[in-house]
Amino acid sequence: MPSRHVGAESVSIAGVTGGSQDFTLVEADVSLTGKEWEKHPIVTGPEAPCILGIDYLRSGYFKDPKGLRWAFGIAAVVTEGIWQLNTLPGLSENPSAVGLLKVQEQRVPIATSIVHRRQYRTTRDAVIPIHKMIQELESQGVVSKTHSPFNSPIWPVRKSEGEWRLTVDYRALNEVTPPLSAAMPDMLELQYELESKAAKWYAAIDIANAFFSIPLAAECRPQFAFTGRGVQYTWNRLPQGWKHSPTICHGLIQTALEKGEAPEHLQYIDDIIVWGNTAAEVFEKGKEIIQILLEAGFAIKKSKVKGPAHEIQFLGVKWQGGRRQIPTDVINKITAMSPQQDHSDVSTNQ
């Protein structure tokens, strides 16, 4: 509810009404409750009143006259007083945490022929971070120096947070790797199953560096060799980028959970979700699963444990009240895309 305003500034906004149009930017006294007022710049225009004060609503929560908390026009989720799973003992605060699964070293399919690909140039920004990462992985026993007829090029991948992920381009190796009979669950079927639960509360657990927690048998390691700064290394643990790593990892985590008689859950590789009708029920389920995984040898970071909460993200989808929703960050990325200018742009992108 805007009150008096002081001053005015003209701004041009594209896309609000289907084109570019001039609007007025004013500094107004704004209140969400009608009692507490503060100054805030708002955009106003005769053909787009719907954008009035939207950015103000994004500033946080407020309480209505009945004492209910709200955010962005919907009832806010209140989690005060609810035990959170990320407070459990044994969770790691180390961003590079790596566990070691208590199983025999895994014998995996070996390539039917030698594959040797030279390292190609990588982006300059990745060189130093990747080198430091290799040194850290060596200190953790995940990789070690080697001399192998095999070699695959490093392929650094930047994460959404801006950090780098050490992956190796195993496409050529994958082509000569025998198949594996084990299968992966279908992601869409998992979503359908979770939707059918119509749960009120959720918790999600993401195992830290799950692939790197799985030991490889010595005879299987040479095929995974790669070169960093003129030194050849290979993986002592399951590498990222190899075709069978997701399947092997999923199966071993599934076995650990079954052995520990874990409560009802859904799992996709290293992502696990539990649900229930109360926060206490979900907390106990999540606690039991975390204890099973830690006992098995996996590491779990505090930052990767979410809930209990009414709303949670799992498999790239936001879940609330048993329904799937597109995550806010995905919506923001889509809306931030530049609109195509003419029909020729459309034809060239098809």
Automatic annotation (TrEMBL):
Species annotation: Hirundo rustica rustica
- EC assignment: 3.1.26.4
What PROSITE patterns does UniProt report for this protein, alphabetically?
RT_POL
Q: Taking every annotated instance into account, which residue ranges of this chain make up the domain Reverse transcriptase? A: 138-319
On the tree of life, the source organism's domain of life is Eukaryota
Give the UniProt family note: Belongs to the beta type-B retroviral polymerase family. HERV class-II K(HML-2) pol subfamily.
Q: Which GO terms describe its molecular function?
A: RNA-DNA hybrid ribonuclease activity
- State the InterPro entries in the record: DNA/RNA_pol_sf (IPR043502), Rev_trsase/Diguanyl_cyclase (IPR043128), RT_dom (IPR000477), Viral_Replic_Matur_Polypro (IPR051320)
Q: Locate the transmembrane regions by residue number.
A: none
The protein's name in its UniProt record: ribonuclease H
**SUPFAM superfamilies, A to Z:** DNA/RNA polymerases
State the top-level EC class: hydrolase
